[in-house]
User: Fold this.
Amino acid sequence: MTEKRSTIEKIPKKSPFREYAEAFAIAIILALFIRTFIVQAFKIPSGSMKPTLLIGDHLLVNKFVYGLKIPFTDQFILDFSQPKRGDIIVFKYPNDEKIDFIKRVIGISGDKIEIKKDQLFINDEKIDKEYTDIFKDPGAIQSEVYREFLGERTHDILLDPSPPENHGPFVVPEGSLFVMGDNRKHSHDSRYWKYVALNKVKGKALIIYWSWPNWKRFLNIIR
Assistant:
């Protein structure tokens, strides 16, 4: 009886250079996929979001939470949800879309927004706030920290002793958002250049993954 043997075709061994090149290419593709559709890293360059976000904070932004876009466009493939009041979002600055801004959503489509002597009103209802602390910021104007109650959401804002300001009223158009910085007297936001189109939103701020020398802020969830 003739013995039957299984045979396996030997795959030619790849050169080390080819193996490294393929691994590098796969890593690049995965990184681009994650950056385009899932999460992207940003660095805070200014103090407009103090005390929530500080200069030098490195954060991750969830690009998946509101939907999926066609790469390199502002057109949604899938629309999961829309930003809510209180969300901190990254978006294309309306006056120069090459620049990314980060602010907090204050008003959604149809809302009436008004600031009277530094007091925020939404749809003619006063948004409550309460004093909590002094913000210690060396070399800057001393500011007071207030806890602001934006519906079911709460967050901290800064107000300094400069003369109170009035803005509005503004009525947020359909498909748009009204955004403000938490450092209310030192933020260039919708009070000055109006609205953010929903399709210009890049994502929702998720977590601070690095902040030197503020190491206590590592892995802080952003609210």
Observations:
- Helices lie at 16-38, 190-193.
